[in-house]
Design goal:
Lipocalin; 8-stranded antiparallel beta sheet
Length: 113
């Protein structure tokens, strides 16, 4: 997996995007509003399971799921994705902030050593 990815995400209140590195058990990235993404994962069978902490930029942000976060507020987002095909551009269903539905699509930009 050790690669750099684009991500697009969609919720009831709109769409967003960002970039992440996923590899060596680490997920780290940033979204277009300046939110920070930092977490871990493990591959179990054919699934990639983990959690990321999402930290709102200091001026706050409105999430695609409709909620507004104050500056620096953070929450944890858990995921369970197909390890071999999560980055083929197919939207994957997740539970976002407050249990709201969230679709996330990943595409690999390039492998990293």
């Amino acid at each position: 997996m050790n690669a750099f990815y684009t991500m697009k995400y969609f919720g009831k209140a709109g769409a967003g995007g960002g970039t992440v590195y996923i590899g060596r058990g680490v997920v780290v990235g940033i979204d277009i509003q300046g939110g920070k993404i930092d977490g871990t994962y493990e591959v179990v069978g054919d699934r990639m399971k983990g959690a990321v902490k999402i930290i709102a930029p200091k001026e706050g942000s409105t999430l695609v799921t409709g909620q507004t976060l104050s500056g620096g507020e953070e929450f944890v987002l858990r995921f369970d994705l197909p390890a071999s095909s999560f980055a083929d551009g197919t939207p994957q269903m997740l539970k976002g902030y407050g249990g709201e539905a969230l679709l996330v699509a990943f595409e690999k930009v390039r492998d990293l050593a």
